[in-house]
Amino acid sequence: MNELLLGKKALTLSKARVLQLAAQGLLQAPRRRARREDLIATIQRMRLLQIDSIHVVARSPYLVLYARLGDYPQAWLEESLESGRIAECWAHEACFVTAADIGLHRSWRAQAESNHWADKHAARARDANLQEMHALLERVRASGPVRASDFERADRGVSGWWEWKPEKRWLEAWFASGELMVTRRERFQRVYDLAERVLAKLDPPINASVSSLSRDTLRKHFILDSVRALGITQARWIADYFRLKPAVDERELAPLVSSGDLLRVEVAGWDSAAYVHRDHAALLDSAREGRLRATHTALLSPFDPLVWDRARVRAMFDFDYTIECYVPAAKRRYGYYVLPILHRGRLIGRLDAKAHRAEGVFEVKALFLEEGVTPTERMLADMAQAIATTAVWHGTPKIRLGRCRPAQVASALRAHWRG
Q: What is the Cα–Cα distance from 264 to 274, expressed in whole angstroms?
């Protein structure tokens, strides 16, 4: 254990939670209106921003940013992509990362063997249609950026995630292997261009030296970035953040503790050590001394990095969470697109939401507080405010509230909205 931490008392779980929330930018509500640069800083703080196209409410990347930035124009995300401040790549899944990091991700994927579904689909596409794929690549080279929708499909009426038209599969295969990148999005559709042209507009420019970094050096970088982003973590949760293989264990972290890159910490009730990045040493001291105060209430995306690892969120927040949009309807417990409710350092419940944009209605189909959570007046007021401001940001200011558990929550929330 680091000499710095010898003799230190174990962190309580509640102090570990506020440390993680502080690192993730979810400890307190923003104190001023968001600026464009805040969007880049927020992605850099998390190290990535997962992309998902489901939009029963705002698509996940916008919602993740809203939980940290408050009211901001959604167009900033697309504008940052088109101007080269951020880029798309495969990381945890398909993600936005900052221009400063994209070279590291491209170098890692060029060296690392991957069993990810995107790479498997890309390999199958190349095996079956290499000539057609090269023709498509030459079209992009000669004529410029393309969208999948620029190509007619022969089998009209076929739909679904895995029923992409051939050109869409080929574009995604070139994207997965790095020859194409996403230069911008139009109505959230990817617009693909040659990687060399997208890389040329990055701000800041790509650092050419990253292409010569060894696989071990890159792995160390992503391990440290994962710990920094999480604030505090057990070894077993680290690999999931960037989908590293093999899993990270305490033996691999021991040299990083010895070098001072990581601080090894004890958390009361955990049977494994916790790790904190050295950049968060002051934050760790503040947490230990009780100087970090969680005051933020927010609705979280199902793909928010705070909650996407089921084992981690269960251990950190005693919150059992499954993304149920991929679960058959008959087997769902809570709903299709269920948003965890963060309240002052705890995950106190979840709600199933849908934004009816044409009607201007934000529907809360169902809201569930966790077993053992007793709603206080402050909790209800904060929750009502979080739902109302989220609804306004969606452009759906009318709130339609369905069933609640416990039932009396419904009347209390309505009273706050009327008042």
A: 6
